[in-house]
Amino acid sequence: MTDVQGAPEGEHSPVTNEAIVADSANDLQAQVDKWKALSRQNEKAFKSASRELDELRTAHMSDQERAIEQARQDARTVALSEVGERLAVAELRAQAADAGVQLPDADFLNASRFLAEDGTPDAESITAFVSTLPSTTLPPVYRQDMGLGHRGSSTAGQLSRSDLSRMTPAQINEARDKGLLDALMRGEL
């Protein structure tokens, strides 16, 4: 038997296989989008229910329990702020390195400026700050004479063989240390 395309049964023509793959990909993407939307709805519902539960708990607390809870929240915020500043500086350094920019000295940065209300690093403000820094990436500097072969040199200031014949061994060694015999040693004189 043959299918609609004229291919033997069990085999699909290339056009049919591509169409099946495209349809499958579209169906898969639709399912992913659907589940993402449902997940977001569930997350919003959970946050709303959690907030409502916290409000009910707070409403049923005595004044002493409210004071204790407020002290806990204050202590948590202070502790997170202390650690958060270090995390914010680390995040600043990481984003600056990725962007290829140089951060100002840590002494001049107010790291608390990059913290959210709960004491955690605020990624949006860090990204905004790093994007305002000027780029410090410079093109690489290459040696200009690398691999070019003999380029000639100036023999001005170099000593010749006749100069050597009038010098003592100590003077020759001194001239060699000063580089006055380089052209002679390369065979240019």
Could you give a short account of the major beta sheet?
Answer: none
Query: Number of DSSP strands?
Result: 0
The gyration radius over C-alpha positions equals 38 Å
Distance between the termini: 94 Å
The total of helices stands at: 6
Instruction: Determine the mean pLDDT.
Output: 80
The share of residues in extended strands comes to under 5%
Which shape, going by the Cα principal axes? elongated
How would you spell out the order of helices and strands? HHHHHH
Query: What share of the residues lie within helices?
Result: 55-70%
The chain-level structural class is: mainly alpha
The low-confidence runs, each spanning 5 or more residues with pLDDT under 50, are none
What is this structure's SSE topology?
Layout: H1 14-59, H2 63-99, H3 123-132, H4 161-165, H5 169-177, H6 182-185
Helix pairs in contact: 2-3
Which descriptors would you attach to this protein?
189 residues
Describe, in plain words, how this protein is organized in 3D.
This protein is mostly helical. The longest helix is centred in the first third of the chain and has 46 residues, at about 15-60. It is elongated, with a radius of gyration of 38 Å. The mean pLDDT is about 80. The protein has helices at about 15-60, 65-100, 125-130, 160-165, 170-175, 180-185. Among the domains are: about 65-135, no CATH class; about 160-189, no CATH class. The termini are far apart. It contains six helices and no strands.
Can you give me a brief rundown of this structure?
Helix 2 packs parallel to helix 3.
